[in-house]
Amino acid sequence: MSEILINGGNPLSGEITVQGAKNSVLPVLAATILCEGESVIHNCPRLSDVETSLKILRHLGLKAVKQGDTAVIDGTKISEYDIPDSLMREMRSSVVFLGAVIGRTGKAVISSPGGCELGPRPIDLHLSALSLMGVTITEEHGYLTCTAENGLYGAEINLGFPSVGATENIILAAATAKGKTVIHGAAKEPEISDLADFLNSAGARIYGCGSDTVSIYGVERLKGTEHTIIPDRIAAATYMACAAVTGGKITLNNVMPSHMVSVLWVFRESGCNVELNGKSITVTAPRRLCRVPTIRSLVYPGFPTDAGPIVVAMLSVADGTSVFVENIFENRFRFADELKRFGAKIKTEGKVAVIEGVSELSGAECKATDLRGGAALVIAALKAGGKSIIGEIQHIERGYDGITDRLSALGADIRLIEK
Ligand code: EPZ
């Protein structure tokens, strides 16, 4: 079992390239199920969630190989329509395969995705939308069996909440359905536009992504295509926070600043100098970070919930008290108790975290509770004086490609150790 060992206190400097977006590559890999041919996906990050997705594609009968940061998927043939429970449990976001499998085969069997570290992860919005498109859904013994006897047909869909996954599942199901589908109240995250770009390059007709009304005109079939995944805006925010807490200055290459407006605002509010230069961002930390009075997570383009733990860790050493309000997930603050081991002063009450900035953190032994909570512990350990050990790093490896290599390249004293 690996752990991360960090000797904190080094100001970070230098430059790195940011990985491809986890939350884009997963739905794009699901979309290859709809493509009757070979698809080549570039800028594919090395993540355990990507490995799980490739396992699902191979189980379904597709050919799926990854060479470095390029995945090559051949969807000419599909022989199965179920996603094994073990793989569903390995990756909660496997639910995004549902729309694509039904779209290609007219049926799908998945185990009811349980909750995850962030709390219950219901899929009612996904299922009610698919029902409107002609899918019959039965649930027994923890399995959902979805069938579209007469194939999928377009529908007018109102999403009660702009769910990212539900928007993606509807787009995937509608791409080859009969007729037109309109999603009102769609999520606007950049990863959804990236999915639409992939599908449109494969022959789909999807319009309006990035707005709250998305129209999809179903087409007969999709062919294989080539696509480059957008940069990971949450990974970019994470490395910026690593520089911010250590009083460093780093440049991130291959980022999309336009996807990070609400995040960049928080870094500037905290006293960081943030320079944008095309697809690069240079962040220079102040001598001491300033508090940011209130940050609220919202759906895009608001401040992303996934960057919540990142900025909470960063502001734990700011001058003054900051408040973070989590409006998306019920259980976003599980990492707070682990962060307190470093001497952080954080009080959480429901969806509110009050962060009383301290001047120093001290090294600690801790365990990652979830993906972004784990990243928060890395940020704290980079700042803390002395040695820190972070366990349960499988959570971190789900979403960060080579985080120890990238931080080491920026001057951090960090390495993997075997427990
Ligand atoms: C996606 O999750 C991301 N995951 C999450 O990133 C991200 O935090 C989230 O969007 C919000 O931006 C992937 O893209 C793989 P939602 P998703 O459906 O699709 C409720 C990370 O750290 N809801 O927008 O599951 C739900 O309970 C991960 O990279 C329903 O009630 O998010 C939650 O409170 C974590 N019914 C809220 O909506 C539904 O049918 C947001 O969920 C669906 C969702």
Explained architecture:
By secondary structure, the protein is of the alpha/beta class. The protein is 31% helix and 26% strand. It has 14 helices and 24 strands. The chain has helices at 22-31, 48-60, 85-90, 97-105, 124-132, 164-174, 190-201, 233-245, 261-269, 308-315, 336-340, 371-383, 394-397, 403-409, and strands at residues 2-8, 13-17, 38-42, 63-67, 70-74, 82-83, 107-111, 136-140, 143-147, 156-158, 180-184, 205-207, 213-217, 226-228, 249-253, 273-277, 280-284, 294-296, 321-325, 345-349, 352-356, 365-367, 386-391, 413-418. The chain has a four-stranded mixed sheet with strand order 22-23-1-24, covered by helices on one side. Strands 2-15-17-16 form a four-stranded mixed sheet, covered by helices on one side. α1 packs parallel to α2 and α10 (308-315) runs parallel beside α12 (371-383). The longest helix is centred in the first third of the chain and has 13 residues, at 48-60. The protein is elongated. The protein starts with a strand and ends with a strand. The structure holds ligand EPZ. Ligand EPZ is lined by residues 22-23, 26, 93, 121-126, 161, 163-166, 187, 305-306, 328-329, 371-372, 399.
Task: List low-pLDDT spans.
Answer: none
> DSSP helix count?
14
The pLDDT mean sits at 96
Main sheet properties: 4 strands, mixed
Question: What is the strand and helix layout of this fold?
Answer:
Elements: E1 2-8, E2 13-17, H1 22-31, E3 38-42, H2 48-60, E4 63-67, E5 70-74, E6 82-83, H3 85-90, H4 97-105, E7 107-111, H5 124-132, E8 136-140, E9 143-147, E10 156-158, H6 164-174, E11 180-184, H7 190-201, E12 205-207, E13 213-217, E14 226-228, H8 233-245, E15 249-253, H9 261-269, E16 273-277, E17 280-284, E18 294-296, H10 308-315, E19 321-325, H11 336-340, E20 345-349, E21 352-356, E22 365-367, H12 371-383, E23 386-391, H13 394-397, H14 403-409, E24 413-418
This protein binds ligand EPZ.
